[in-house]
Structures are given as C-alpha cells and as structure tokens.
Regulator of microtubule dynamics protein 1
Amino acid sequence: MDTRILTLGTFVFQNIFKKVYKYKSQIPQIMLFRTHTVTFIFSGLWFLWPTNSSKNNSNLKEINLIPSITEMADKTFETGKYEECYNLLIKYKMQNDVEIKWRICRALYNMAKDPKYNEKIRKELISQAYDIIVEDVKTNSHNFAVQKWYALILDVKSSNEGIQAKIEQLENVKKHMDLAVTLNPNDASLLHMLGEWCFQITELPWHQRKTADAIFASLPYSTYEDALEYYLKAEAAQPRFYSINLLRIGCCYLKLKKEDQAKYYLKLAASYPAKSDDDHRANKEAAELLKKLK
C-alpha cells in the first residue's frame, strides 16, 4: 500500500531548519537554533537498456507486453521488492509508455529510502526518478499517478538541494498533490499525504516561521481543520488502512479540544496490529497521549 511505503522512512519532508545554524550570528535573539528541528513527514543500479537488434518487430512485441509487465511490476512492488521491480521495468523504458515510466519512478523513490544505499546513491536515485517523471508531468498531466509521484519526488529532490529549495517548492508540491487528488479523489494514501502537509505546516512554531520568512521565502499556511479534513477523507476512502492516519486524526481532535473524538481514534491507533516501524510508532505515541487524557 503506497502510504506505508511513503512513510516507512517516508516520504519525506526532511528537516528544513537543520542547516540554518550558520545564520545564528545574524539573529541571536531568535531561539531557532536549538537542537529541536522541525521534521516534515509528508516514502539495483539501472540502465538495463533493451537491445537495438530487430528494432521494429521487437518494439511491437514489447508494446503488446506492457499491460502484463505493469501487472507483474505491481505485484513485485507490493511485496517490497523495489529493486527487482525496477529491473523488470527499466528494460521497457525506451518504449516511452507513461504507465511504465511512472512505475519506474515509484520504484526508484522507494529504493532511495533503503538504508543499504549511501546518501550519494540515494540522491542519484531521486535525480534519476525526477528526470523521468518531469518529462511526463506536462505531456501526461491528466494522469493521476504522474501527478502523485511527481509531487513526492519533487519534495525529496528539493530537500536534497537545501533549505531554500525546499521552502520554494512547498507550494508546488501541494499543487501537484491537489491535481492528483482531483483526478482520483479516493486515493487514501494521497489524502493522507495532503493531511500530513497541512499538519506539519500548522505545527511549525511561530518564531521558526518568521525566521524562515526573513531568511528564505514566505512559508504557506494551513490549519488543523484542513489536516483533519484530509485525514478523515483518507479514512473514509479506506478504513483502518494506516496506523499513522488514525494517530493523526486523534492528534487533530486534541488540538481542536475535542477529547471524546480524540480518544476514539487514539485507541484505534494504540491497538493497531504492529507490522511496521510506523505501526509501532503509532502504538507508542497514541498510548502516551491516552495516558495524559485520563
């Protein structure tokens, strides 16, 4: 399921303020530069090109194979074998089929979260994914998956490029998520990601926002109500699909002083079957919040 993959390390917004220590001497009165950072959570090698021999006939056969290839790739992806999925698809990249290309980018995105790769390789994986998906975001703007994966890949790419690039792309990332959700209003993972975008923007402390506005660029605004709306839509689209979504709903209700609703969702998050790191995290955080409510 995409959302689990997105936030299993995921998808993510990195710490946009961790590099601003160099500005400390310029604005010492602002207590931005403590160890606290704001973490946004909004996720083999390649070039196995096909042979050029018998080009026309082989291309025709490969085009006919694409539906079965994408089905096989999806099954491989769902088992978490991202590198295997990539190697399966990359042989067909030169067919220039959008359904092949966005799946290649999806595999690269998730490979880039694998700790077995060093930071340099992870950045290269994201750069390769971006170079592929950016070609299609204009020519296939009507494709839900293209818009979705462009937003996610752009987010990580901008994080890799530094704080200013990250801030400058925040609105653009959300724009493409909004376009994707317009094309597919019932994708639970995407609705959750939109909720995360709103939640993390809202959570940003005032003094950090003002400092970022002064040094880099104006940050967008959102509210807990906005975040809650997306989280609830995600839950309605696919009930109990993700432990963190349940946790976030509970957190939003707490922020909005609605303790009864908060307790209901926090209990669901605390008792969610733990099959991933995110599930364990949701269990722990929800249990801690429930203790404070007693």
